Amino acid sequence: MKKSILNLGKTLNKAEQKSISGGFGVNFIGSICYTSQSRCNSAMASAISYGADPAQTRCESCTTEWGAPGFMVRIYATL
């Protein structure tokens, strides 16, 4: 059963991936809200060092789970 489930798809090439994502060259990966700007900056720098798009990845204002103001790192990667 496991083998039949694992064989249910195919690996997409870059052109196929772009057609699914609407043809945009940048895809949003994820975000998290931190309580301090310095933590957001550190997470952003780390994401960029691992290949995130430095022109798109950024820190923005957000609200934490408990309602306090914070800073959210929005990580983007190019296809």
How much β-strand is present in the residues?
Answer: 25-35%
Main sheet: strands, sense, barrel = 3 strands, antiparallel
Structural class: alpha+beta
The largest sheet has its strands arranged as 1-3-2
Low-confidence stretches: none
Task: Report the C-alpha radius of gyration, rounded.
Answer: 17 Å
Helix content: 25-40%
How would you describe this structure to a colleague?
- A three-stranded antiparallel beta sheet has the order 1-3-2, with helices on one face.
- Helix content is 32%, strand content 32%.
- The mean pLDDT is 77.
- The protein is elongated and about 40 Å long.
- It has 79 residues and is an alpha+beta fold.
What is the strand and helix layout of this fold?
Elements: H1 2-6, H2 14-20, E1 26-34, H3 37-49, E2 58-63, E3 69-78
Antiparallel strand pairs: 1-3, 2-3
